[in-house]
Amino acid sequence: MSRAAVILIAEDEAAIATLIKYNLEQAGYKVIHALDGETALRLARQEKPDVVLLDWMLPVMSGLEVCRQLRAYAETERLPIMMLTARADEADRVKGLHTGADDYLAKPFSPGELLARIHALLRRAGVSAVSSTLLSCADLSMDTVKHTVTRGGRTVHLGPTEYKMLQQLLQQPGKVLSRDDLLENVWGKNINVEERTIDVHIRRLRKALNEGGEPDLIRTVRSAGYALSVPSLDDLENEAV
Ligand code: CA
Predict the structure, then answer these.
(1) 11 C-alpha to center of ligand 1: Å?
(2) Burial class (CB in 10 A: 0-12, 13-18, 19+), 49
(3) pTM
(4) For 98-128, how does the pLDDT look when each residue is reduced to its tens digit (9 = 90+)?
(5) All structural domains of the chain
């Protein structure tokens, strides 16, 4: 049975920490929070989180120093670390990455971008992002018990057919599902549904998912079907403002 991935936030600014915590919990992650560098280091070693979000400027011990020390201990040597900082200039960014951070996000950032990057870090580390009742891809999450869908923290309202389609797509992000696959899994084997009906539902699903102006996550693969596109870290780098 998989458990929800645990994320440690080391951030001394309460408003930012609260916002991040809210968005991460909405997406199905378990969150622990440290207000200073020393506590962050202790919690990282004790609680063994799956990812650390490390603010650069922290009281007691800087984020950079926490990062350096985490890399020095065997048990946290490979722990995915994302540095958060208001310092956007390249020299700092390079310094952060050289110290062993896996990724780097400049403030202010959108919750969607944060979630997508965490998801990518977890995927690279081979951790399943969320517990078994939660399916997710980038900033999109589905709770199959509560029957809810959120994108970047916003609730997405879907009809039953669109919901089932999305569930199919989320179960195998990146895999192309043919119209036949969708037909069989969404409507059932012996139902007669025209191909263009599937396209109509995909259009509705896209509209609901992208309502907040987010990038389209559903990829149309000509003459093959549809897939959820999984953003890579490189894509995110290019999209970052
Ligand atoms: Ca700070």
Answers:
(1) 6
(2) buried
(3) 0.56
(4) 788 998 888 888 888 898 899 888 888 877 5
(5) 6-125 (3.40.50.2300), 134-238 (1.10.10.10)
